[in-house]
Design a protein that fits this description.
alpha+beta; Elongation Factor Tu (Ef-tu), domain 3; four-stranded antiparallel sheet; 21% helix; Psb28_c1_sf
Length: 129
């Protein structure tokens, strides 16, 4: 129970699920997320593709990007497998790959994605394409 504050207060709460390239700086660009999973379900991978993310505007130096951090109220998931894609010498997109080695890690990641989707008002398809 307990009374809940209005929606605006919830937006700035520490519980919000968010993606960051630099710790403490929220990346507002919504990525395309492609999920793949092994047949046994023990391992999986998520590929995030951010088209023209705002980090490019904020930071001319891609060296500032040390990884992709997925923050929510359970803690932080992170990957350092982050690459920029260039077109005509200009950064166009960022791809980040997050690997999961167990069903436990997969479930934890999906909890993050559910929170992130709710936060951003998205629906992720969980089907295997």
């Amino acid at each position: 129970g307990g009374c809940r504050a209005g929606r605006a207060a919830a937006d700035v709460s520490a519980e919000a699920a968010r993606l960051e390239f630099i710790r403490g700086i929220d990346e507002p660009t919504i990525p395309e997320v492609r999920l793949s999973r092994s047949r046994t379900g023990a391992a999986g991978a998520a590929l995030f593709v951010f088209e023209s993310p705002s980090i490019f505007e904020a930071s001319g130096d891609l060296g500032d990007i040390t990884g992709l951090f997925m923050e929510d109220d359970e803690g932080t998931l992170s990957t350092t497998d982050v690459k920029a894609k260039f077109v005509n010498g200009k950064p166009q997109a960022i791809e980040a790959r997050y690997m999961m080695k167990s069903g436990f890690e997969w479930d934890r990641f999906m909890r993050f994605m559910d929170r992130y989707a709710e936060e951003k008002g998205l629906g992720f398809e969980k089907g295997n394409k």
